[in-house]
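Bumping my old thread because nobody answered last time. Still need a sequence for this structure:
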């Protein structure tokens, strides 16, 4: 039987062998974790072997091995359907929680009627990830200002050091915690996204439903970014841009005329080859 404070952790993996062992060790040691559901999207690098070893040692951990890659949103929804705990945490396989990370985050969330919370994310050098605190994309507004400043297209919001909980438009999908009741009321992740922007979408719908979206600035977590995406930069950039285009069409396109829509489409899709080339060279 689940208690009212139990957390079900959903981890979606794909080619995550480099980090998932440490990630699962930490999740198994974390306070408040009643269930761990790993949904693997067709890994070929030994990820599932590592997951199976953890499952054999811990009855809280179960896994689903998808024969293909249906996308992050689809797999998250699978993991939720296979769990029962009243709290849900979505954790990337390259995220390294501390023992009290999830329990402290749940304590923050319990102070609201409904809340979707993220954390302060840092890389191995301690550099903050600006994706932890974001504003909603305003694609048409970006068109008007991008020629003046390239930073106009960035979504990051500065940290408010004076607040333990900082309200923002969106948090990073690398770690999200929310009540199951809220997730179900929202209908889960939109499975029309394959990779990227589904977290922006979920946060926007949560706010529209009256929930609080905020970052716990007092909870810092190591995020070893891009472990699963380094081998497929073209795939990642394609679906990132596809996700942004879906987000714009879903939330904002109806507010604008054809010239603005065409301008946004041009910016998104003309940017794609340059972003893909940059990602490939970085790899």
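Sorry it took so long. Here it is:
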């Amino acid at each position: 039987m689940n208690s009212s404070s139990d957390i079900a952790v959903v981890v979606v993996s794909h080619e995550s062998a480099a980090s998932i062992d440490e990630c699962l060790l930490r999740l198994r040691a974390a306070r408040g974790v009643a269930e761990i559901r790993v949904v693997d999207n067709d890994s070929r690098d030994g990820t599932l072997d590592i997951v199976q070893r953890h499952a054999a040692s811990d009855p809280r951990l179960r896994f689903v091995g998808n024969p293909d890659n249906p996308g992050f949103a689809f797999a998250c929804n699978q993991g939720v359907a296979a769990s029962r705990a009243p709290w849900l945490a979505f954790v990337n396989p390259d995220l390294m929680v501390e023992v009290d990370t999830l329990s402290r985050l749940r304590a923050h969330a319990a102070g609201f009627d409904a809340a979707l919370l993220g954390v302060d994310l840092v890389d191995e050098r301690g550099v903050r990830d600006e994706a932890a605190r974001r504003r909603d994309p305003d694609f048409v507004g970006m068109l008007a200002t991008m020629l003046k400043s390239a930073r106009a297209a960035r979504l990051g919001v500065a940290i408010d050091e004076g607040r333990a909980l900082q309200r923002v438009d969106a948090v990073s999908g690398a770690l999200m915690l929310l009540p199951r009741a809220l997730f179900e009321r929202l209908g889960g992740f939109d499975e029309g996204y394959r990779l990227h922007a589904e977290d922006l979408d979920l946060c926007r719908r949560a706010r529209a439903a009256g929930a609080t979206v905020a970052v716990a600035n007092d909870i810092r977590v190591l995020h070893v970014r891009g472990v699963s995406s380094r081998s497929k930069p073209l795939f990642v950039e394609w679906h990132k841009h596809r996700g942004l285009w879906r987000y714009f069409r879903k939330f904002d396109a109806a507010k604008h005329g054809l010239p603005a829509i065409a301008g946004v489409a041009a910016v998104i899709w003309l940017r794609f080859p340059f972003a893909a080339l940059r990602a490939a060279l970085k790899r």
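The mean pLDDT is 89. Let me know if any region looks off to you.
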